């Protein structure tokens, strides 16, 4: 697999990683996802990593970079479905996923994104349209 599918759901983009990530695939995902945030004017990105059994320091950094880049482009990111072994590895590697919002599953992650969208709508005076 040379690309990871990115699905549009209303104001959000959904990425479900179903294969083990290698460095080139992670870089392609970063480029594709930032392009789609701009093209689709996405307000949020949900990244499901529940199928990942291994996360090395590069992939961890890429997740943090994706969150930072999408935030810079005006979209919040939430990483969901992290396996306990992956969380342990991230901590043992001394990695810090500052500014990366996480949730246990897709439902909770989507709720975070919707709450963020509603918060933004209240701030700018516009009503949200959570299609």
Fold and architecture overview:
This protein has 131 residues and is of the alpha/beta class. Helices cover 47% and strands 17% of the residues. The chain has a single domain (6-124), classed as 2-Layer Sandwich (Transcription Regulator spoIIAA). The protein contains four helices and five strands, in the order E-E-H-E-H-E-H-E-H. Strands 1-2-3-4-5 form a five-stranded mixed β-sheet, sandwiched between helices. Helix 1 (23-40) packs parallel to helix 2 (57-72).
Which secondary structure elements does this structure contain, and how are they paired or packed?
Layout: E1 6-9, E2 12-16, H1 23-40, E3 44-48, H2 57-72, E4 76-80, H3 84-92, E5 101-103, H4 106-124
Parallel strand pairs: 2-3, 3-4, 4-5
Antiparallel strand pairs: 1-2
Helix pairs in contact: 1-2
- Main pleated sheet: 5 strands, mixed
| Percent strand | 15-25%
- Rg, Cα atoms, Å: 14 Å
Q: What is the 3D shape? A: globular
CATH class: Alpha Beta
Proportion in helices: 40-55%
The whole-number mean of residue pLDDT values reads: 88
| H/E element order | EEHEHEHEH
How many separate domains?
1
CATH topology: Transcription Regulator spoIIAA
Number of helices: 4
């Amino acid at each position: 697999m040379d690309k990871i599918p990115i699905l549009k759901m209303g104001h959000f983009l959904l990425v479900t990683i179903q294969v083990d990530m290698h460095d080139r695939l992670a870089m392609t995902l970063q480029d594709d996802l930032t392009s789609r945030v701009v093209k689709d004017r996405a307000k949020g990105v949900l990244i499901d990593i529940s199928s990942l059994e291994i996360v090395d320091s590069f992939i961890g950094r890429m997740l943090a970079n994706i969150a930072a880049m999408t935030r810079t482009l005006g979209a919040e990111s939430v990483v969901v479905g992290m396996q306990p072994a992956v969380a342990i590895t991230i901590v043992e590697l001394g990695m810090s996923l500052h500014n990366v919002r996480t949730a246990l599953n897709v439902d909770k992650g989507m709720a975070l994104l919707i709450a963020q969208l509603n918060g933004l709508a209240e701030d700018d005076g516009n009503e949200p349209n959570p299609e």
